From TrEMBL:
The lineage of its organism: Eukaryota, Fungi, Fungi incertae sedis, Cryptomycota, Cryptomycota incertae sedis. This is Hypoxanthine phosphoribosyltransferase. GO terms for biological process: GMP salvage; guanine salvage; hypoxanthine metabolic process; IMP salvage; purine ribonucleoside salvage. One of its GO terms (molecular function) is magnesium ion binding. Residues 42-189 form the Phosphoribosyltransferase domain. It catalyses: IMP + diphosphate = hypoxanthine + 5-phospho-alpha-D-ribose 1-diphosphate. It is found in: Cytoplasm. Belongs to the purine/pyrimidine phosphoribosyltransferase family. InterPro entries: HGPRT, Hxn_phspho_trans, PRTase-like, PRTase_dom. Its EC number is 2.4.2.8. Its cofactor is Mg(2+). PANTHER family: HYPOXANTHINE PHOSPHORIBOSYLTRANSFERASE, HYPOXANTHINE-GUANINE PHOSPHORIBOSYLTRANSFERASE. Pathway: Purine metabolism; IMP biosynthesis via salvage pathway; IMP from hypoxanthine: step 1/1.
Length: 213
């Protein structure tokens, strides 16, 4: 599938010593890829893009937060959306899991229920932290479309430049990033680093330190 979206290309890394990194994580980080202020500003712009596409008569926006990684992105998106629109913003949660250490197991599960009344006729935005192959996202979108949303769009904070064929193309993309394992702002490595405010590249020491043995 052809890629068609606008995004900031985060192809430059920053020296971690220039940022305020929590002590627990400083030795596990290679470099900073996206500083917190840049995340905030980009999310604000994505919210504006969503607000600009809302039809007059839509009753509510439903953000479908894909747990766990998207919890910070979806929360920030909600914060920014309520500044820009008078339409209620509903948040629903779904969970998909496929990673063990930094390896995709390929075996994906969708957990959690989506009541049809929060999807039907609503302007639905599925909110992801990162999409790589898009396999799970495709299944989730097919499931949502059966519930009769006014529209169902995908927003992802990050999009990795991979060579492989894409199953879906998101409507809103925050940043285009290189094919490296990233952590922070909700993204984890074995549940750690979600609390880090910046999006960073993990180093080999960090992978070993927080490895599931
Ligand atoms: N980091 C964390 N989770 C992920 C990544 C990543 O780079 N890619 C897919 N899930
Ligand atoms: Mg995820």
């Amino acid at each position: 599938m052809k890629q068609k979206f606008e995004a900031i290309e985060a192809d430059k890394v920053y020296d971690k010593s220039l940022f305020d990194i929590p002590n627990a994580y400083s030795d596990s980080i290679q470099s900073v890829l996206i500083p917190p202020g840049l995340i905030r500003n980009r999310v604000s712009k994505l919210a504006r893009n969503i607000a600009n596409e809302l039809p007059e008569n839509v009753e509510a926006i439903t953000l479908v937060c894909v747990l766990k990684g998207a919890f910070r992105f979806s929360s920030m998106l909600m914060e920014e959306l309520v500044k820009l629109t008078d339409i209620p913003v509903i948040m629903e949660f779904i969970r998909m899991k496929s990673y063990h250490n930094d390896v995709s197991t390929g075996d994906v599960q969708i957990l959690g229920e989506l009541p049809s009344n929060v999807i039907k006729d609503k302007f639905v935005v599925v909110v992801e932290d990162i999409i790589d192959t898009g396999k799970t996202m495709k299944v989730l979108c097919e499931m949502l479309n059966q519930l009769g949303p006014y529209k169902c769009l995908i927003a992802t904070l990050l999009w990795k430049e991979l060579q492989t064929e894409r199953e879906v193309v998101p409507h809103y993309v925050g940043f285009l990033i290189p094919d490296v394992f990233v952590i922070g702002f909700g993204l984890d490595y074995n549940e750690f680093f979600r609390d880090l405010d910046a999006i960073c590249v993990i180093n080999e020491y960090g992978k070993e330190k927080f490895k599931i043995k």
